[in-house]
Prior knowledge:
The protein is mainly alpha-helical and 520 residues long. The protein has 14 helices and 9 strands. The protein has helices at 55-59, 69-88, 91-113, 121-150, 163-177, 180-188, 195-218, 233-262, 272-301, 306-334, 372-378, 417-440, 461-464, 500-508, and strands spanning 3-5, 12-14, 344-347, 352-355, 381-383, 393-396, 404-407, 466-469, 484-487. It has a 3-stranded antiparallel sheet, with no helix packed on it. It has a two-stranded antiparallel ribbon with strand order 1-2. It has a two-stranded antiparallel ribbon with strand order 3-4. A hairpin with a 4-residue loop joins strand 3 (344-347) and strand 4. The protein is elongated.
Amino acid sequence: MVNTHCPTCTTEVPVGVFCGACGAHLAPQPGDGPRWLRPRAFCAAPHQHVLRPAIASSLFPQLSQLTRAPFYFGLVLLVAAMAFAVEIRLPGALVSVAALGLPLLIVIYQYLSGAYRDIPRGALIATATLGIAIGVGWVLLTGDLVIRETGAPFDAGIAGNRVLRDGLGVAEGGVLLMMIPAVVVRLVRPGPRKALNGLVIGVLSALSFTAAATFTRLAPQFAAATVAKTRPVEWLVVEAAIRGVTIPLTAACAGGLIGAALWFTRRTEDRRPRRLLVTGAVSLFGVAVLGIYGVIGITDVAGLPQAKMLAWHIAMALVAVIALRVGLQLVLLHERPDPSPGDPQLCLHCRTVVPEMAFCPLCGVAAHASTEASRAQRRQVVAEQDAEHAPTADWPGFGTSAAAYRAQPLARNPAVRVPLLWAIVIAVITAPLIGLSARIAEPDVLYNCPPDCGRPPTRTPIASLPRFTAEGGNSRWPTPPRGRPTRSASMPAVCGPPTPAETAALSSCGASRPTGNPPR
């Protein structure tokens, strides 16, 4: 084995493409970018650029690339389920799939892939419980305010002086509250101080809060109608895309970013300027998350068309994914490594047996970007000359004592296991809710207008009509062409008796109008 000195950390490491101690390029080339970021080779997927918005390698950097196919199959199944709910116009099914679909898929995939085995079970249970409780309480506190002001979750159009309260206030308050479970677990029982453990806890904290908040906010739709015959398909599509995909994806990325920063432990041997630079960059993660949710909050209350609102949500989700990848690159490059014995270990990314170090000398993948079970399994390699009774899986060696090795077959997650379990859980949750919706939903009332015109769906016209006061101080209904509008909770007083046309119009709506002169 031939060694060399790394120009970045001055450590003696095996000759290769990357330094096995710090992960930097041993022979930097133009276009490689700054050494402290190494943007052309992502630490969890070296064949990807850091700025590439790949969802699986960003949310699950510690899981093997051999097991990521089930997540994509589950994602396709999630989109198909939401499309089916939109097509048959079942609000109950759409609410269940949109609110619980992606969070449930991520939790099932991480559990079956072994991502939760490195974290104490009590920490996971506490994180999920606190997230659900805080999410429900937050919606009960603020949800009625937003619905009352906007009239519908996607049809805001409120005045500018309410943006700070109903837009930024609710959005920024929500992002702060959704990280409380992760902060509590970090203070009480953090477990091993590794950035990717914090990523898992942060994602679970954010998804628990978001799923509980979304489900609670949309729960009144169960009593609206079993089949949404009058709702436009475009409205249901936008609701499904925002509530079911962009919001939980943004929350998962934001929670994972903050969680990784909370569990990050920097190297002690780094030089002071680099330590300050990395610490400052990690501290900016919180500012970036607040900025993303600030844009989302303003978008929700700006009264934009639904297509533009969906476009903004998609853009912010992509920004959140890229921010998560940049954050993970920084923490994995500069995190304090575990002791490396240097024994042969199989690398799944370059399919080569290399010395076990903080980074693979050939592809630069971080050792922390894998679970403990995966690392233990990949250590079980045997040199080919000593492998008479070993399995037949052959792997080339690099920088090791042998040129080829044999190892046990690598564990793979069955492609249908994750989507099948997700479909079963969603069906078990959705079926009773649809039945409950059918029992409690109020049937549509048919009116014969006139004389019975019923009532508007949200409030009476009398309580929402503006009152105009003329320049001379008199009020009259209908509205005069000039005057200044004010709000009144009751019907404005008029000068003199109503005209026959006014009386007929009010009678057809089931309302009456007081008479008399207005107060002066």
